Amino acid sequence: MKKYILVIGFLLSLISFSEDIMAQKAEQAKERYSFGGHVFTKDFPIKIGQAVLYNALTNERLDDANIDTLGYYYFYRKPAGDYLVLARLLPEDPNFSAFSSTYYPNNAFWQEAEVIHLTETSWEYDIDMVVQQSEGSPNGPGKISGTIFQISGKPFVADVDVIIFDENMESVVHYPTNEFGQFNFENLEYGTYVLFPQIIGMTTNPIEIIISPEHAVHQEIEISIEDGYISSSINEALISEESFRFFPNPASSLINIQFNTSGNKNIQTRISDLSGRVVFEESAKLTSSDYSNTLTVGDWQNGYYILEILIDGSLASTQKLVISH
Predict the structure, then answer these.
(1) Does residue 48 carry a pLDDT above 90?
(2) Would you say the pTM of this structure is higher than 0.90?
(3) 211: closest CA among 195, 198, 196, 224?
(4) Final residue in a domain of this structure, among 234, 256, 285
């Protein structure tokens, strides 16, 4: 009986091996073609850049090609099929800040890219780079920074093209994430922006960010990738650490609380003793970016207290308070 089982197993392995060989031969038998084109920054070829080839059906990244000094890219002997091509300047290129990454023939979004149906060798697939609104480095007080994670917080995702659009969805500036999945945009002017990380084949949930005199810095933005979606959220300090003032401490009669946050917030001040009993609680509607409050503590017992500041229901700061008369 064992002999028959071994024979059957051997025959099945031969069949599987034969099928693999046939599949490989079928793949090798496909017609193969070479193709490419020029990449233009306005009227001139780019100097330092990269073309990336994707399978238009599976969104798999297949190949990379350097763009030569004449602005030309090409992919050699690829099977007949459907492809997408992305052209991008590298940070070393002098025009990097003036042009966004671009899908053939002239699209900032992969969903709008034109599919290349490869059925013959052709060198006419030219790409005109999308012009960004900021031709040169931005020069403002704003900052947007954060990290892209894969799934469940890690690992980090490198080389993701993160684009900042204006409110009309015109590209302003872009930059790829570093090896730790981090992106950092500085010197942004006041205004409304859309943060848009882009990975081919995935749906991006963009996040709107307003750079204003009251809230110019947006950092620790977390972007996660899961189940084909790129979702973004701001996970930053609700109160600027540099602006928070809490004095005197120890206090005998009065305490002063001051800080900056974005306007139109519900501010809740809560103070508890070490047993957890709430001894003071107050809510206020903040219409500007500056919060200031003075509390009278002259009749409170000596000891340690916990001061909590909540903004729109989220805990923003916890401080230890000492009362000493």
Answers:
(1) no
(2) no
(3) 195
(4) 234
